[in-house]
Amino acid sequence: MTNLTLRREEVLAWLQERLPPPRLRHILGVEAMARQLAAHYGLDEQKAAWAGLLHDLAKSFPAEELLQRVARERELDEIERAEPHLLHAEVGSLLAQEQFQVQDEEILAAIANHTLGRPGMDPLSCVVFVADALEPSRGNSPELEQLRRLAFVDLSKAVVGVCDLSLRFLLNRNQVVHPRTLMTRNHFLLHPLDKKDFQRPASPVHPVVSGGS
User: Fold this and answer.
1) Residue 206 included in any domain
2) Number of structural domains, the chain?
3) Cα 191–Cα 200–Cα 87 angle in degrees, nearest 5
4) Residues 6+ apart with CB under 8 A from 97
5) pLDDT in tens, 84-112
6) Is residue 210 part of a domain?
7) SS in 3 state form for the chain?
8) Residue 166, Cα to own-chain centre: how many angstroms?
9) How many Å separate Cα 183 from the centre of its chain?
10) Confidence (pLDDT) at 3
């Protein structure tokens, strides 16, 4: 068994202690779909899989802890204060560094961006953002199935489609919308990814996760 496999088992054990089985199924679904999308688009499959596995590290954190952790890093906006669960992605990125010594900037960004997206985010972040919304346990509605097919045809259009899905969900429930979701949608409508975005020099990934726990 390789060191990376051992470390994956350590992450899974950590998650199993803190998250219910449905959330763990979701995480494993994101890991698998992110790897598939990365392979399809010529991206680093290992980075995509690690980002998928680690993306919900802070999902079970209470609201006050999420607020406190991010407030130590930057100023919170009023929507984040009203909806602290939005911060689990950013806190998860911090936790990946602290708990599992992840240092790869693309992986950390993909974790941080998986909930709201980010204008100009790189293809790896796009892959995890899309996989988080579309992995199999999210359901099998016609809309989701259409977006899953689109994800393997045009990654930028899939990002826009996931933003639209989120916006409709929030608007139908009269909930607040964080402007970053709308900004992400508009960015990828106006500036879709092109070939050069998928041809960035590969950065070293070994070890993605290293050191103690």
Assistant:
1) no
2) 1
3) 65
4) 103, 108
5) 999 999 999 999 999 999 999 999 999 99
6) no
7) CCHHHHHHHHHHHHHHHHCCHHHHHHHHHHHHHHHHHHHHHCCCHHHHHHHHHHCCCCCCCCHHHHHHHHHCCCCCCHHHHHCHHHHHHHHHHHHHHHHHCCCCHHHHHHHHCCCCCCCCCCHHHHHHHHHHHHCHHHCCCHHHHHHHHHHCCCHHHHHHHHHHHHHHHHHHCCCCCCHHHHHHHHHHHHCCCCHHHHCCCCCCCCCCCCCCC
8) 14
9) 17
10) 56
Give residue 134's domain range: 3-198
The mean pLDDT of 132-140, rounded to a whole number, is 97
Which residue's structure tokens are 């199924």?
25
CATH number at residue 102: 1.10.3210.10
Residue 208 located in a structural domain: no
Instruction: State how far the Cα of 173 lies from the Cα of 115, in Å rounded to an integer.
Output: 18
In a domain, 182, yes or no: yes
pTM value?
A: 0.92
Neighbours of 16 (CB within 10 A): 11
